[in-house]
Design a protein that fits this description.
With about 110 residues, this protein is an alpha+beta fold. The protein has helices at about 40-45, 75-80; strands at about 5, 15-20, 30, 55, 60-65, 75, 100-105, 105-109.
């Protein structure tokens, strides 16, 4: 039987960073339309392409990359506090001017 590789969740946060829609922090923007957004949804999308990091912004946007291009840190509680789109209460997905970036660790199950 072949093992399946899945993301480790909750993923370790590398912090909350200043972000604008026209600014690149992680170079790949996932263009899929998601019915819901969560750490799991974004991590699984980035895992398909073997990226090292994934980032969440604006409650519904997912980004992937192997390098963090802008490191202007922000207070996580103040700026990375957008509720994840259509997801159960409690999980945050960045903010309107901030992206929370996570390390994409994996495990075999």
């Amino acid at each position: 039987m072949q093992n399946t590789v899945v993301p480790v969740l909750p993923a370790p946060s590398l912090g909350c960073f200043y972000w604008r829609k026209d600014e690149v922090i992680l170079h790949y923007k996932v263009e899929e339309t998601f019915k819901l957004m969560s750490q799991k949804t974004c991590a699984e999308s980035c895992l398909k392409y073997s990226y090292k990091y994934f980032g969440l912004a604006n409650g519904d946007l997912c980004f992937c990359g192997d390098e963090i291009l802008n490191k202007a840190p922000l207070d996580k509680k103040k700026y990375c506090n957008a509720q994840c789109k259509n997801y159960h209460f409690g999980q945050k997905c960045g903010g309107s001017i901030a992206m929370e970036i996570f390390e994409l660790l994996t495990e075999e199950i």
